[in-house]
């Protein structure tokens, strides 16, 4: 599904070029649940931003389902991103002034669907993450775990081909983390959603099918048992 070939990524810091991704070669197959680990500053978030089409400023080739993405113009990439990827972040990134229902509905409206048509889809997706009763609440009225479940519902609503989760449990306690991981694992196992998750917690690798290690910008993929 995803293939990175000889990706190099630099950040400009003043006159200096910081080499952040170093000759990265990586394949992710449909149905994989990839856990990305590595020290702070090693390039994990940079890597998933490239994978999720958020960053196209790199050298090398990105093939998605066999098509070269790295040469496309930004407008085309945004259109592909909206249809293809869902994002879950540590800080949830929900819009605080909108209800949970509206937050989850938003990607559908971006895709040009009318509000009336989306109601049922939004409700079904909220049910899937156990938030059927919480649609009318504001994010501030939910617990951290519930907010993350709302963020997962928002990531799922467009039926993305894969989901990028950058430390999705980083702000949650252990029990709540397990609950979120169970939801992600069910999506992976029952619905075949491909998942790419950054985590600092080695215990969470038990939910993954593969481990990717990022050390000083270099990347290695390993199969889990
Ligand atoms: N926008 C930026 N401009 C300049 N340097 C950056 C930028 N973003 C990240 N970096 C640098 O790139 C390197 C990799 O950062 P990245 O955020 O990918 O690390 P990470 O592995 O996700 O770390 P963490 O585990 O702390 O989240 C770091 O040295 C960081 O300082
Ligand atoms: Mg990071």
From TrEMBL:
<dbReference type="GO" id="GO:0098796">
    <property type="term" value="C:membrane protein complex"/>
</dbReference>
<comment type="similarity">
    <text>Belongs to the ABC transporter superfamily.</text>
</comment>
<dbReference type="GO" id="GO:0005524">
    <property type="term" value="F:ATP binding"/>
</dbReference>
<feature type="domain" description="ABC transporter">
    <location>
        <begin position="2"/>
        <end position="225"/>
    </location>
</feature>
<dbReference type="InterPro" id="IPR017871">
    <property type="entry name" value="ABC_transporter-like_CS"/>
</dbReference>
<keyword id="KW-0813">Transport</keyword>
<dbReference type="GO" id="GO:0022857">
    <property type="term" value="F:transmembrane transporter activity"/>
</dbReference>
<dbReference type="GO" id="GO:0016887">
    <property type="term" value="F:ATP hydrolysis activity"/>
</dbReference>
<dbReference type="InterPro" id="IPR017911">
    <property type="entry name" value="MacB-like_ATP-bd"/>
</dbReference>
<protein>
    <submittedName>
        <fullName>Putative ABC transport system ATP-binding protein</fullName>
    </submittedName>
</protein>
<keyword id="KW-0547">Nucleotide-binding</keyword>
<keyword id="KW-0067">ATP-binding</keyword>
<dbReference type="InterPro" id="IPR003593">
    <property type="entry name" value="AAA+_ATPase"/>
</dbReference>
<dbReference type="Pfam" id="PF00005">
    <property type="entry name" value="ABC_tran"/>
</dbReference>
<dbReference type="InterPro" id="IPR027417">
    <property type="entry name" value="P-loop_NTPase"/>
</dbReference>
<dbReference type="InterPro" id="IPR003439">
    <property type="entry name" value="ABC_transporter-like_ATP-bd"/>
</dbReference>
């Amino acid at each position: 599904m995803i293939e990175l070939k000889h990706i190099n990524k630099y950040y400009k810091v003043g006159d200096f070029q910081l080499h952040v991704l170093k000759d990265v070669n990586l394949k992710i197959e449909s149905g994989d649940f990839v856990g990305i680990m590595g020290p702070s500053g090693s390039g994990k978030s940079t890597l998933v931003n490239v994978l999720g089409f958020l960053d196209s400023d790199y050298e090398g080739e990105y093939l998605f389902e066999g098509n070269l993405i790295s040469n496309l113009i930004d407008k085309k990439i945004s259109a592909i991103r909206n249809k293809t990827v869902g994002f879950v972040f540590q800080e949830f990134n929900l819009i605080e002034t909108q209800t949970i229902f509206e937050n989850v509905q938003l990607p559908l409206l971006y895709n040009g669907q009318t509000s009336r048509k989306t109601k049922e889809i939004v409700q079904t997706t909220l049910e899937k993450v156990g938030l059927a009763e919480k649609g009318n609440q504001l994010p501030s009225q939910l617990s951290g775990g519930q907010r993350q479940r709302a963020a997962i519902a928002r990531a799922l609503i467009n039926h993305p081909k894969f989901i990028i989760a950058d430390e999705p449990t980083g702000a949650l306690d252990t029990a709540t983390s397990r609950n979120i991981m169970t939801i992600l694992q069910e999506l992976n196992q029952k619905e075949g959603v491909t998942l790419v998750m950054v985590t600092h917690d080695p215990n969470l690798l038990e939910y993954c099918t593969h481990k990717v290690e990022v050390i000083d910008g270099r990347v290695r993929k390993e199969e889990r048992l």
